[in-house]
Amino acid sequence: MAKISIEIDTTNNYGKKNTTNVSYVNPQATNDKLRQFAQMLVALTNDTYERVTKITKESVI
Q1: What local confidence, expressed as pLDDT, does residue 61 receive?
Q2: CA distance 14 to 31
Q3: I need a surface site. Which of 12, 38, 41, 42 has the fewest CB within 10 A?
Q4: How would you class 27 by CB atoms within 10 Å of its CB: exposed for 0-12, middle for 13-18, buried for 19 or more?
């Protein structure tokens, strides 16, 4: 079974870029819902939302 996570890229007020990883994301979540979640999470901070990347890891045997 694939493991889904997201990587949220932000920029702070001083121009420094940050990345936050969220693991164990529901594999049935749509890309729109993941983007909305990331934007809402960043809204709790002083950072500026840049992008979110969905990462799928799956073993190939």
Answers
A1: 81
A2: 29
A3: 12
A4: exposed
